[in-house]
Design goal:
Layout lengths: L3 E10 L6 H19 L3 E9 L3 H10 L3 H18 L6 E4 L3 H16 L3 E11 L4 E3 L17 E10 L5 H10 L4 E2 L1 H10 L7 E2 L1 E3 L8 E2 L2 E6 L1 H6 L1 H4 L7 H6 L3 E6 L3 H14 L7 E5 L2 E3 L2 E2 L10 H8 L1 H11 L6 E2 L2 H30 L12 H22 L3 H22 L1 H4 L6 H22 L4 H11 L10 H5 L23
Parallel strand pairs: 1-2, 1-12, 2-3, 7-13, 12-13, 14-16
Antiparallel strand pairs: 4-5, 4-6, 6-8, 9-11, 10-11, 14-15
Helix pairs in contact: 2-3, 11-12, 13-15, 13-17, 14-15, 14-17, 15-17, 17-18
The structure holds ligand ME8.
Length: 511
């Protein structure tokens, strides 16, 4: 098991303000990051903004600003929104950063020096939304399938990256590294694409047409194609080529993206790395789209949803939980506010909220001074303990495949088991029998112990809710420093706990 994790989100274009789609990938990366910290790994988590290219120039013009001012302003919106969504990134990168420009030029020069960049002429259908050329066969009714506009035919002299040279290597690499691109459907999609001859990649734009970019180190009349520039952010952010951070974290790189940018990440990026003499990333994790009525949520389709308004209306943790629970990583999901309200009321207010409030209320009522570690366990207690360890195993396994929804289903299965344990052991009946004080202590101890395990596992998904429950449990120690090892042992809670009342964590919401 690798001891480190380097997790990245796409760097988002500054042509649109942050919306629910960006929030999803970034929250998923955050959950992954926090879970890996919980698992005892050292992690580095990066997000940022992609600021060069036609698309940004056009958006700046529309806003009546110059590209730099415009990029500064929108990049700041991204930078500022992440703390509001409890995102734990270690670094925020901008492609207009000076150190990034140097790394891009370094890589370009390297690839040029090995003879994998040449000058030539190209004509093709160019979608400004995607910032790439399309083959005719890729278009739907002559239009870009994502942006639903007809691309423009452009012909010009440019520099090309000899990507075709790496086609066989890439096919072989994908086949011999299961999970390199995952889930498998996306690996298959890339392999299907690679069945046709791979064309070389146009990696420059003449300054006469576009000068908002990084100048080629070997020709000052050209800027770098925005994708060649953007992908390299993943190296800049860890201090490539010679920082300790790079050597430590690059081998454990996990990129998170949606399927819209599978081709640049699944084909351009590994071949660029190969040509530069750098090991490919460890995993490319690809998720589907958040849709509304079958249409992708996107600025160009005009159906964006502001994550902050959902956070303000329903609370951050309910929003985070909904996103992670509702989408099967890899498949599309439909967004609706009524689905969010249903999840909030059933999973959060009912299942989790009731478990926390009724358990803590009973401990306060019956054991003001705290609980003692039981001297023995009955069969029903053993069953609860074994449910906990099975859940933990299942949850860890699901998280290793980024199956966030199944990881949550595993936790909720255990929440149901604890609620059942409470009903079956009936602490309120035990409380009425004077000779059952020892048993009542044991039952409540087990319930608190189960809640402790649940709380530690919920922390990556719902940090502030987990903090609230943790504080009420009155357990010594900081929730942030808990590790999986701390919850594999039943009874690590210690001899006594001083429990305090908890306000309803998820009040019910009317849909
Ligand atoms: O593509 N559903 O930036 P971008 C799910 N700058 N995820 C969505 C989404 C949706 N409806 N809409 C957006 C770029 N996303 C490039 C990336 S990386 C070197 C350069 C998320 O602002 C998802 O992560 O268009 C998707 O891949 C990304 O935003 C695209 O962001």
């Amino acid at each position: 098991m690798s001891k480190t994790l380097y997790v990245t989100t796409p760097i988002y274009y500054v042509n649109a303000e942050p919306h629910l789609g960006h929030a999803y990938t970034t929250i998923a990366a955050d959950v992954l990051n926090r879970f890996n910290i919980l698992s005892g790994r050292e992690t580095f988590f990066v997000t940022g903004t992609d600021e060069h290219g036609d698309k940004v120039v056009r958006a700046a013009e529309a806003a009546g600003e110059n590209p730099k001012e415009y990029a500064d302003r929108i990049s700041m919106l991204f930078r500022n929104i992440w703390p509001e969504l409890s995102i734990s990134n270690d670094y925020f990168i901008r492609t207009t950063d000076e150190d990034h420009k140097k790394v891009v030029q370094l890589i370009l020069q390297k690839v040029y020096d090995v003879g994998d960049i040449y000058f030539g002429e190209y004509g093709g259908y160019y979608c400004f939304g995607c910032e790439r050329f399309y083959y005719e066969k890729e278009l739907a009714d002559g239009k870009c399938p994502d942006h639903k506009v007809a691309p423009e035919f452009i012909k010009e002299k440019n520099y090309f990256f000899r990507m075709s040279k790496y086609q066989d290597w890439l096919i072989e690499y994908i086949k011999s590294h299961p999970g390199f691109i995952r889930p498998e459907r996306y690996s298959n999609e890339v392999l299907a694409f690679l069945r046709d001859p791979l064309e070389d990649l146009c990696i420059s734009r003449p300054k006469s047409r576009l000068d908002w970019g990084i100048t080629l180190p070997f020709d000052r009349d050209y800027v770098t194609y925005v994708w060649f520039d953007a992908l390299i952010n993943y190296l800049t952010a860890v201090g490539y080529p010679d920082s300790d951070l790079y050597h430590k974290f690059w081998p454990s790189t996990q990129h998170l993206i949606a399927k819209d940018i599978l081709k640049p990440h699944g084909i351009y990026w590994p071949t660029i790395l190969k040509a530069s003499g750098i090991e490919p990333y460890h995993h490319l994790n690809v998720h589907g789209y958040w849709n509304i009525d079958k249409n992708k949520i996107s600025k160009s389709l005009g159906n964006i949803i502001n994550p902050l308004s959902l956070k303000d209306k329903y609370g951050l943790d309910a929003f985070r939980y909904f996103l992670m629970r509702e989408m099967v990583f890899g498949l599309d999901a439909n967004f609706s506010e009524s689905a969010l309200v249903n999840r909030l009321n059933s999973d959060l207010a009912n299942d989790l909220g009731n478990l926390a409030s009724r358990s803590l209320a009973m401990v306060i009522k019956y054991f003001k001074g705290g609980l003692h570690k039981p001297t023995g366990y009955l069969e029903i207690d053993e069953r609860l303990r074994s449910d906990a360890s099975k859940m933990l195993e299942d949850m860890i396994n699901q998280m290793s495949r980024l199956a966030f929804n199944k990881a949550l289903i595993a936790i909720w299965g255990f929440i149901a088991a604890v609620n059942k344990y409470i009903d079956e052991t009936s602490p309120w009946t035990l409380a009425k029998k004077e000779d059952q004080a020892g048993r009542l202590n044991a039952v409540l101890y087990n319930i608190v112990e189960a809640l402790r395990i649940i709380t530690v596992l919920l922390f990556p998904f719902m940090p502030s809710t987990a903090e609230k429950i943790w504080t009420s449990l009155g357990i010594k120690g900081n929730l942030h420093t808990q590790r999986l090892d701390d919850i594999t042992e039943w009874g690590k809670i210690g001899e006594t706990t001083a429990v305090s009342k908890i306000e309803p964590i998820f009040p019910r919401v009317e849909g």
